[in-house]
């Protein structure tokens, strides 16, 4: 590699990492209680992975961040270079020992970069959780890390394809499992916004010391992702393939009974991934092979197909407001009718923020905040408040 390319790589990395803070890994935890699923908005749809608690939450949008875009470009260049580097080293290897060394060195480099990305996410999440930074800043960081993790995962896969002697298979499987926790469909939209593809949809962000939840509405779909960092340990996997099938059926009983397409794969010896395509949408989820705990989930559901149960109804001046069952960051359906059930036009706000006007069907879909909050419906004749508890 010539000096000009070395200089460009160095300059990009310095520019993209200026001001970054890398935290040491926190002490590990084996407390994986409550790392299963909780009921969704209805017994007739999928359960969801939830954080044990939410310490900080709000709504924000992702947008163009020049330094973040530079960081992503730098990371992409680094990964492209490293894939070329290991490919050339393997091609030049004249002995099995040289081949193994090339693969091992590439795996070592990928491991160091993975650890740095995980540390960066922990630092950013803790800064947001404790009020040291804004939700917008945190969303920019997770969008940037999504893009970097995707590029690094491509490198890990490339090393896998070159490893004819199975040098470090388990290590790379573990890296891929870790990199998956930095990626998701909501973060993909945030990464696109970071690059200048337009402002992202309004996004719910909720964090704890042990994980994050992001949720949004996009093109008629409800999209949610959750990661639990306390649900994995360093022990070798004990679950068999059949055990994993049983565990996923326990976690997602409705999806297991109503699936159109189901796939389960083993990632190394310590991670199982499942994908359900069901009548309401899709689930992609991962469990730890030693604990059986669910540590990563993303769900996409069509709003048109989600069944709802109106658990809160208030009537005033011939206006009836029904609000669906929900959870923090969950889909929230507000239905406004008159006493005979005819749709009523109304402006709807949630916790003081306007979220839209009812259409011809009298319905507004939005995302639920965490905690207790008012849903306020204003028609030409009256204003109706409904108290909602999403905990």
TrEMBL record:
InterPro entries on file: DUF7094 (IPR055520), DUF7096 (IPR055522), Fn3_arc (IPR056397)
Location of the Fibronectin-III type-like domain: 311-384
Span of domain DUF7096: 1-197
Domain DUF7094: residue ranges: 205-307
Name of the protein in its database record: Uncharacterized protein
């Amino acid at each position: 590699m010539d000096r000009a390319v070395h200089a460009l790589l160095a300059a990009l990395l310095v520019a993209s990492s200026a001001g970054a803070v890398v935290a040491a890994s926190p002490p590990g935890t084996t407390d994986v209680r409550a790392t299963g699923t909780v009921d969704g908005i209805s017994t007739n749809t999928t359960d969801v992975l939830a954080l044990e608690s939410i310490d900080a939450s709000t709504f924000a949008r992702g947008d163009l961040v020049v330094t973040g875009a530079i960081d992503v470009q730098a990371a992409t260049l680094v990964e492209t270079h490293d894939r070329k580097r290991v490919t050339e080293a393997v091609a030049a290897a004249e002995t099995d020992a040289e081949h193994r060394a090339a693969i091992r060195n590439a795996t070592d480099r990928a491991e160091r970069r993975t650890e740095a990305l995980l540390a960066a996410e922990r630092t950013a999440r803790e800064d947001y959780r404790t009020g040291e930074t804004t939700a917008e800043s945190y969303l920019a960081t997770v969008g940037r890390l999504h893009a970097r993790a995707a590029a690094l995962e491509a490198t890990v896969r490339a090393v896998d394809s070159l490893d004819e002697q199975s040098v470090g298979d388990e290590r790379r499987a573990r890296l891929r499992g870790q990199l998956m926790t930095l990626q998701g469909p909501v973060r993909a939209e945030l990464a696109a916004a970071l690059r200048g593809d337009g402002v992202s949809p309004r996004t719910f962000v909720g964090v704890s010391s042990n994980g994050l939840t992001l949720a949004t509405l996009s093109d008629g779909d409800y999209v949610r992702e959750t990661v639990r960092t306390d649900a994995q340990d360093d022990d070798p996997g004990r679950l068999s393939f059949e055990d994993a099938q049983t565990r996923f059926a326990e976690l997602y009983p409705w999806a297991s009974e109503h699936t159109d397409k189901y796939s389960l794969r083993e990632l190394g010896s310590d991670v199982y991934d499942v994908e359900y395509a069901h009548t309401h949408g899709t689930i992609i989820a991962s469990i730890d092979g030693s604990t059986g705990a669910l540590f990563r989930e993303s769900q996409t559901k069509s709003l048109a197909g989600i069944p709802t149960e109106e658990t809160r109804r208030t009537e005033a001046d011939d206006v009836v407001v029904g609000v669906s069952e929900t959870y923090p960051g969950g889909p929230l359906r507000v239905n406004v009718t008159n006493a005979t059930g005819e749709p009523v036009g109304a402006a709807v706000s949630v916790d003081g923020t306007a979220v839209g006007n009812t259409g011809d069907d009298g319905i507004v879909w939005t995302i639920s905040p965490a905690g207790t909050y008012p849903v306020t419906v204003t028609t030409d004749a009256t204003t109706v408040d409904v108290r909602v508890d999403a905990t």
